[in-house]
């Protein structure tokens, strides 16, 4: 099996997209760190984040089509939006979305260093930036939950009560890979 990580190709995709095809990316790139993560509301952050708007999705599809067909591919990452993926599926069992609870997402960021981690630490108010980011991510998860339900796709809630083994088993069951 081959893994295609959409997060790993974000930089490449951002460079390959013409400005006219990526207006939200252009606006985001023009902002400083505080404008991106501190000054805007979580709702505005959600509604204007280029990857959440589907910018660059066509490049994901191009990349996947260019892969050798010698083995199955698992594509993963938050850029795989249900509304964009569904028309490309031959079976709904070929896709599953992991939907983290807000507490789980908070723990992920805490494990990375909280406000001292990565781009968050580059803002003038890292605690506020992290709070905004977590609220934006919760809104995004709500959106994904609604879309997967509306489209009849599989969404699995991820929280502290599910072990990694159990989650892997549940994902495998969706894909029809259980023993």
Would you write up a description of this structure?
- With 179 residues, the chain is mostly helical.
- The chain has one domain.
- 50% of the residues lie in helices and 10% in strands.
- It has nine helices and four strands, in the order E-H-H-H-H-H-E-H-E-H-H-E-H.
- The protein has helices at 10-16, 23-30, 33-37, 42-48, 57-66, 82-85, 102-112, 126-151, 164-175, and strands spanning 2-5, 73-76, 96-100, 154-158.
- It has a two-stranded parallel sheet with strand order 1-2.
- Helix 4 (42-48) crosses helix 8 (126-151) and helix 7 (102-112) packs across helix 8.
- The relative contact order is 0.15.
Mean pLDDT: 95
Seen as an oligomer or otherwise, the chain set is single chain
| Structural classification | mainly alpha
Biggest beta-sheet profile: 2 strands, parallel
Secondary-structure element pattern, one letter each: EHHHHHEHEHHEH
Name the overall outline: globular
Question: Beta-strand percentage?
Answer: 5-15%
Distance between the termini: 17 Å
- Percent helix: 40-55%
Give the low-confidence spans: none
Number of strand elements: 4
Rg, please?
17 Å
The tally of helices reads 9
Number of domains: 1
Strand order of the largest sheet: 1-2
Offer a quick outline of the entry.
It contains nine helices and four strands; from the N terminus they run E-H-H-H-H-H-E-H-E-H-H-E-H. The mean pLDDT is about 95.
